[in-house]
Write a structure and sequence with these properties.
Lambda_DNA-bd_dom_sf; Cro/C1-type_HTH; about 60 residues; single chain; 2 strands; 434 Repressor (Amino-terminal Domain); Putative transcriptional regulator; two-stranded antiparallel sheet
Length: about 60
């Protein structure tokens, strides 16, 4: 199972959902999907966009458990 770490990375960087949405241009719903249990349904492009906005690597956005 893949577990999202997007929420933790955002908190560590002090970023809100609104700020990340503004930085990425993604819909709030898309970001919320990546922050929750549905991260596995996000495309690699979406994850790369989020990672770029957070200043991290795509692999930092999730952990396998």
């Amino acid at each position: 199972m893949i577990t999202s770490r997007v929420r933790q990375v955002m908190e560590a960087k002090g970023l809100t959902v609104r700020e990340v949405v503004e930085r990425t241009g993604l819909a709030k719903e898309t970001l919320n999907r990546a922050r929750g249990d549905l991260i596995g349904r996000c495309t690699l492009d979406t994850l790369a966009t989020i990672a770029g906005a957070l200043g991290c690597r795509v692999k930092d956005l999730f952990e396998e458990g």
